[in-house]
Amino acid sequence: MSTSIRISELATRFGAVLHGDDVLVARVASLESAGPDALSFLANPRFKSLLETSQAGVIAVRAADAAGLQRPHVVAKDPYLFYALAAQQLYPRRQVNPGVHPSACIDPAANVSEAAEIGPNVVVGAGAVIDAGCVVMANSYVGAHVELGRDVLLHPGVTLMDGCVIGDRVVIHPGAVLGSDGFGNAWAGDHWEKIPQVGRVLIGDDVEIGSCTTIDRGALEDTIIGQGARIDNLIQIAHNVEIGAHTALAGCVGIAGSTKIGARCQIGGAAMISGHLEICDGAVVLGGTLVAKSIREPGAYGGPYPMQAHSDWVKNAAQLRHLGELAQRVRQLEKNMASLKAAAGDEE
Amino acid sequence: MSTSIRISELATRFGAVLHGDDVLVARVASLESAGPDALSFLANPRFKSLLETSQAGVIAVRAADAAGLQRPHVVAKDPYLFYALAAQQLYPRRQVNPGVHPSACIDPAANVSEAAEIGPNVVVGAGAVIDAGCVVMANSYVGAHVELGRDVLLHPGVTLMDGCVIGDRVVIHPGAVLGSDGFGNAWAGDHWEKIPQVGRVLIGDDVEIGSCTTIDRGALEDTIIGQGARIDNLIQIAHNVEIGAHTALAGCVGIAGSTKIGARCQIGGAAMISGHLEICDGAVVLGGTLVAKSIREPGAYGGPYPMQAHSDWVKNAAQLRHLGELAQRVRQLEKNMASLKAAAGDEE
Amino acid sequence: MSTSIRISELATRFGAVLHGDDVLVARVASLESAGPDALSFLANPRFKSLLETSQAGVIAVRAADAAGLQRPHVVAKDPYLFYALAAQQLYPRRQVNPGVHPSACIDPAANVSEAAEIGPNVVVGAGAVIDAGCVVMANSYVGAHVELGRDVLLHPGVTLMDGCVIGDRVVIHPGAVLGSDGFGNAWAGDHWEKIPQVGRVLIGDDVEIGSCTTIDRGALEDTIIGQGARIDNLIQIAHNVEIGAHTALAGCVGIAGSTKIGARCQIGGAAMISGHLEICDGAVVLGGTLVAKSIREPGAYGGPYPMQAHSDWVKNAAQLRHLGELAQRVRQLEKNMASLKAAAGDEE
Lengths: 348, 348, 348
What we know:
3 copies of one chain form a homotrimer.
Chain A: E1 5-6, H1 7-13, E2 17-19, E3 24-25, E4 27-28, E5 38-41, H2 50-53, E6 58-61, H3 63-66, E7 73-75, H4 79-90, E8 99-100, E9 105-106, E10 111-112, E11 117-118, E12 123-124, E13 129-130, E14 135-136, E15 141-142, E16 147-148, E17 153-154, E18 159-160, E19 165-166, E20 171-172, E21 177-180, E22 185-187, E23 192-194, E24 201-203, E25 208-209, E26 214-216, E27 223-225, E28 230-231, E29 236-237, E30 242-243, E31 248-249, E32 254-255, E33 260-261, E34 266-267, E35 272-273, E36 278-279, E37 283-285, E38 290-291, E39 299-302, E40 308-309, H5 310-320, H6 323-347
Parallel strand pairs in A: 4-5, 5-6, 6-7, 8-11, 9-12, 10-13, 11-14, 12-15, 13-16, 14-17, 15-18, 16-19, 17-20, 18-21, 19-24, 20-25, 21-26, 24-27, 25-28, 26-29, 27-30, 28-31, 29-32, 30-33, 31-34, 32-35, 33-36, 34-37, 35-38, 37-39
Antiparallel strand pairs in A: 1-3, 2-7, 22-23
Coiled coil (chains A, B, C): 316-343
EC number (chains A, B, C): 2.3.1.191
InterPro entries (chains A, B, C): Hexapep, Hexapep_transf_CS, LpxD, Trimer_LpxA-like_sf, UDP_GlcNAc_AcTrfase_non-rep
């Protein structure tokens, strides 16, 4: 799947400076496992000792780590970013093979570009628009009136319900579901009445969405994912959520209805965010945190209960149930202490 | 997708009283975005100021909020419920188009009603029964001996393993899996032996199940979801769980094996419920709570650790690990204080 | 689906001793619901009273629980394990029906054993190898160069992306996704650059993987699941994770990138494990625990915040935010107390 490129070409292209031989690189690899045809990188100075022992053909390093390095290397401002960009060249997305697989079911009222590739068993509904460069892989479902921009990649088994609008170059991984109904129910005294969900899901350009992630359509307005957002696996995004541009959500995050998350936020794995909140641009939420109120200032927020050996935890958890009472007792002690000290002072 | 209806007709039908012109409504919308063809509603008095500025054709309000309102409005006991019921009329489920898509694979020993609609690439196993009014959308799998009641809607990519029994009017969203094996393993000294899972999954009438939710078959007895329950996305329901009628589970909830949840409970998002518990009718569990013991009394239960700025959390989390010890120190202080006060009393 | 076997045959085969009539058993059932054709078992002595009232044809018990038991029973060292093994005989995996369903799309460059069964709408990519005894059920996707060992069972709707290597006798439940891209992004100043994920997913022999579980391919090296591991539903396993042999993960667990979990661990439901950690062999993590540091010693670890009635929780949660301060106040009280006691001592 990979191709071969001269490191000089990659260095020039991505603003790095080559020192030493112009190696032909065919792959990327970690410092430990790299062979002579591989580009590797040092992002964390902690692993600097590996620079000498690695079998890598060439290594991307920061200037600060390059002093005295004899082997071929490239000096980059951000070696991790250089590695990302180089790897994109070495492992290009496979070419589009335009055409519709004979087993696909395309509604006659759908508009599929001749420059798009539609895989086996794909189903495309009436009014759907699939632009040039799109690849819709096997067993995916593109509902009625869905719009896919240019160069969208739907991996196998993706489901896009009616009316989803997907920007250019979006990548959606297997099993993801976009546009299913939001969880809207009104209590009718003895049962729930379903509230029809009539909003859409709008996905900005360059968004990536992970496997088995679910993004519900809006109840009245739309659910919106901003340009360049990165959304990992098994994430639940409820109706009317808005996520700002370039925000990243790690795996297993849940976001309840109508919450607005700003741009360039980072939400750690398994964080759970309540509904109707606002989280400002640039907020960082640590993994496992339950966010139950809005965040107005950028910065890091946390709060998972720390793990302990079970026997210790049992003791502490017992106290946790009586924390209000403990604080009350400390207040009482402070009062008594003040009285005693006052009395002692009187005696002096 | 929506139809147009006179508001007078909706008001009569759902027990509300029209004040002002008999507007023709074609859609529902929020107060902010509604136009003259839209029905909107005021559920939260906090937004009462929007009543005057909204462009909505007609607004559903409580009597208490209707005083002095000049524009067309309907007075309803519960405007949110009125909106739900009206929206169901304006956005009816699409009509069933009876018939089997030529790409579907129906076992000759299946019993599919002629009044059911079977979409592309659907697979139906031997002995399955699909009743009138059912819609089984693309790429869904209906295993052997599965029974679907009347008017069931399986969205695309739903998987029902062998023997599931689904009540009337049930709606299952994309990617949901019902009837996969429960997690049953016996330790055999140096490896796990699988315990065959021979129970079924029984889903009551009018249940709705969200995207990528998984409901395992029972180990020996059945896993049972009561009538009218509402189950959101990405929820795990383990083997032999029973969920009572009209109970609602929000997204990302997990319920471990053999737990019985009563009727009309509300389980908040990402709550995790341990196995072999009993939760009584009418319990409310707040989002993010870990339920590790049975709940015997109706009411609200919570317990997620509260979020803080990371720097504050670090300080508190450090103390959390020593809470048992802190309580011990407070007890010691109280003893010392009692001695000192006794001594001081002696002196007086 | 079940077959009938003499209990004497099962007892002999699995090292148990029959007492009483040689019953023909056709099923397994709980003590409460078993009929005369069922094998039941008593694993928990708490339910010993059911031994007399159960209608089961034969019951597996420990020697300690068998004293005085008149009805047919088998004495086994571990009745639960005996039941598991017996149930495997009574409910064998259905036979393989070799052949490829006409609706399946098999790449001409794939290598599918004639002794494998390929179901409807299955897609198999170029270079894929499917060995004898495999069953690939409906709507599953087997990507290019995937390798399935002998007797693998892919339930409906499983997605295996390119290059996954699956051991013998592996079972994968519906909707699971293996080999999708890991969550790798490098920040480029104003947007994320995707890091191509070029590792694979390697699954050992006898592993079982639950519904809608996602296992990402490695970034550079491989993601590895050891032999005999048991992985429940809706679990996220990130890139470069390694899981040791016979480790069991309960539902809704998340494991962040590059974490290594040892052999024979048990990870409770909804536990969340941060990235780049090491968890030693034999660790037990309780359900709902957030593991944010490595575990070096076997044993049980926990830490979910305990549930309370909401009104109590509100009081305690308020104190939690000030725990560092509370500890500080207790230290101050201890100092004051020491001074007072010293002064009191001086007086004596």
